[in-house]
Every structure is written in structure tokens, then in C-alpha cells.
Predict the structure.
Amino acid sequence: MTPLSFKRHRFPPDVIRHAVWLYFRFSLSLRDVECLLAERCIEVSYETIRCWAKKFGPAIARRLKKLRPSPSPRWHLDEVVCRIGGWRIDLWRAVDGEGEVLELLMERRRDTRAARKFLERLLRRQPVEPETITTDGLSSYAAALRTLELEHLHRPGRLRENNRAENAHLPIRQRERRMQGFKSQSTAQRFLSTHAAVYNTFSVQRHMISRSNLRRFRAEAHAAWAKATA
């Protein structure tokens, strides 16, 4: 991977990396990140942090995705409604059996065409073929999978069968509330794609592992971040 270019920036690269990490790693607003940096005697405006997140966030996300191991072939799909500028926008999301975010897409429709577009995007960007695709009862999934000749992998179910995808919406809802809603469909798509890559890297499911494994997983996550932001 070619190194990130921090040329023509007044602040050192370490400050920029840390600000971007704070913004995408935790449920913090831009002003919160500004206050945390100010406590370290780094005077930078929240608008500057916004520009850093917009410029470096997608590039870092692409690098983090390349460093991730292959996901589980058991996929869970679900959609959730977001209100953006008075419009009802559906956020289509796919996670694997471990809760890792595979793909997401903002669409204004919830029909077969939108479901097929999302599935084609998902299949094209994953290094593994799915073994099962679990969804809720939305009929658009069944119709789209039928056109893609993948209906034999479909496992339609209710909330309990698709609980993995339902729980995966919680971090998104937390950030949405913290940001007082998304401002546009394009900015939501860009932010959520970057947020998903950072979330996948640092999500270690600490309640299911020992303390020694937690330290090891955290060290690996920070090593991946350092490599992606070099």
C-alpha cells in the first residue's frame, strides 16, 4: 500500500491520525474530539477535524478492509430506516455470523430492484461465497435472490433467526443520535462505510474472551490501524 500523504497540513501526521481514530472509533462528536485534543494543548477547530475525517477516512477504511481476514460464509441481511432531510432512506446492511459488517448501502426504495442492487454489490466485494443468507420476512429479498439464482441459500426468518443483524444496528443508531441525524445520503454512505471498517477492526467481543486474549486482540487491532494509516 502506498503511504498516506499528509503534505500541506499544518498539524503533524500523528495528530491527524489520532483525531480521525477518535472520531470513528468512539461515539464522539467533532466538538468532543476538539475538546479532547485541546486538553492535550492541541488547538484545532472541529471543522478542521471534519475535513480530516472526510479526506482520510475513506482511504483508511479501504486499507483496513484489505487487512481483514476472510469473513464467515454465514450472512445476515437486514434493513433499517433513516430520516435524512425529510426523506425516508433505507439502510441495507449485511453482517456475517460473527457480527462483522460486510456491506451497507443507502437506498430510497425497499423493492426488489434495491435488494438486488445491494446483493450484487455484496457478492462482488466479498472474497468468499455465502453458504447461507438469513433475512427477515421482506419479500424483496426472496425475489432478488431468485433472480440471482441463490434462492437455495435463503433462510427467511423472524427477529430471533436474524438477531445477529438486528443487534448490529445498535452502533449505527448510537452514532446517528450523537450526530443529530445524517445530513445527506452521500455523507451518510461515506461515514457509515468508514465507521464499519473501523468497527470491524476494533470489535473484539470482550465479554466472550479472557483478559489475556483481549490484550492480544487489542494489540493486533492497533497494529492494523498503524499499518493502514502509515
